[in-house]
Specification:
By secondary structure, the chain is mostly helical. Helices cover 50% and strands 6% of the residues. The protein has 7 helices and 2 strands. Helix 4 (53-71) packs antiparallel against helix 6 (92-104). The N and C termini lie far apart (35 Å).
């Protein structure tokens, strides 16, 4: 198992202009950044979880493919080609995201975090959080 930080690693965050602090960043961030950061302000950045190296590398590689997809739109110039890349739940990019979200990372969270998920504390489209 590999120890994986729940918060941004300091080395990674420095390359993006400093440490990640949700509250500071939210005042000038996009809607998607607000949705992703929602509920993270009180998470202790020193907490750790265990993730298998294989699952973490699978996640990293998938994120890399998505970055490449969004970085160069000339590779997917038509809506049909974009749809082929994204695909459906049982194939292509969406299948990879589904695999990560519902299989590889689904059971790694500590009990208190699982409870917060169950209670909707991280829900990005809750009417009570004003984001969505």
């Amino acid at each position: 198992m590999l120890l994986f930080e729940v918060a941004w690693a300091s080395r990674s965050s420095e390359s993006f202009g400093g440490s990640w602090k949700c509250q500071e960043k939210m005042s000038r961030s996009s809607d998607i950044e607000k949705r992703v950061a929602y509920g993270l302000d009180d998470i202790d950045p020193s907490r750790r979880i265990e993730v298998s190296l294989c699952d973490l590398l699978f996640t990293y590689q998938t994120i890399g493919e998505l970055i490449a997809f969004f970085h160069d739109d000339s590779k997917y110039p038509t809506l049909d080609e974009v749809r082929k890349f994204i695909g459906e739940r049982d194939k292509t990019a969406l299948r990879l995201l589904w695999e990560i979200y519902y299989r590889r990372l689904y059971e790694v969270w500590p009990q208190d975090i699982k409870e917060r998920f169950d209670e909707g504390k991280f829900d990005r489209q809750s009417s009570s959080n004003g984001i969505g």
